[in-house]
Design goal:
α1 runs antiparallel to α3 and α1 runs antiparallel to α5. This protein has 238 residues and is an alpha+beta fold. It is built from five helices and eight strands, in the order αββαααββαββββ.
Length: 238
């Protein structure tokens, strides 16, 4: 196995973990994720019983957010390592895509590495007040970011990093796209925008509590968290 092949495998593994963490986070939020753990679990010289390791639903929902964040960080680590292992001096590469991909991944990795539970940007002096960009995939403007709290809006969010991983694997390391095998049909129809989750239902669930919402002057309804719902001219909700 060549170094390129090894790094391609690592990148794809990071993508798979990100996809699994995304599924777990969604299922946990929708309360469809089983929370079973062993009645008794031994490993090496240690052992735990169920009541020591079991999760309450609210604990699982909280932990799932950090699990997803950790998976996102791993994508950045895999990108940085893959480029570093296969490209000579990527920081100064004449290929702007290589240079930007490496620097973005490296800076995101650094933000997590120094404070994984509360990531903070650590921008090197030679990278401050600069824009690193791969068109249509990801952009990071480092102006005034140094020592500020990490925010997905700074670089476009987890899906931007997921797309960057695929870009690096295929466009930079030259992985050959494969025909995807069939995937399971989803049990539920779910649409997600940011952290807002909308699930299609055939009927109002039993026990649902009606609430009265007053539309805003433009006809939209505030859903909280900065999200609004409004009808387009076609009648489609956005």
């Amino acid at each position: 196995m060549t170094e390129e092949e090894r790094q391609i495998a690592y990148l794809f593994t990071a993508e798979l973990q990100f996809r699994l963490a995304s599924a777990v986070r969604l299922a946990t939020t929708l309360h469809t994720q089983p929370l079973d753990l062993p009645t008794e679990w031994t490993h090496g010289k240690h052992g735990v019983k169920y009541d020591e390791i079991a999760l309450r639903p609210e604990q699982a929902d909280y932990a799932a957010r950090f699990l997803h964040r950790s998976a996102t960080c791993l994508v950045a680590v895999a990108i940085k390592d893959a480029i570093g292992a296969t490209v000579n001096d990527p920081k100064n590469s004449t290929n702007s895509d290589v240079r930007s991909a490496y620097q973005i991944a490296r800076m995101i990795r650094n933000a997590f590495a120094h404070a994984p539970m509360s990531p903070t940007w650590r921008i090197d002096k030679d990278c401050r007040d600069k824009v690193f960009k791969i068109p249509h995939i990801i952009t990071l403007n480092t102006k005034d970011l140094h020592e500020t709290p990490f925010d997905w809006r700074h670089y476009g969010g987890p899906l931007a990093l997921f797309r960057l991983c695929g870009f690096v694997r295929i466009e930079i390391l030259k992985d050959q796209p494969r025909t995807r095998k069939p995937v399971p049909v989803p049990v539920n129809t779910v649409y997600q925008q940011g952290d807002l989750i909308l699930q299609k239902v055939d009927a109002i669930p039993a026990g649902a509590v009606p609430i009265k919402l007053e539309p805003l002057p433009d006809g939209s309804i505030h859903l909280g968290g900065g999200y609004f719902i409004r009808a387009k001219e076609t009648g489609v909700v956005e």
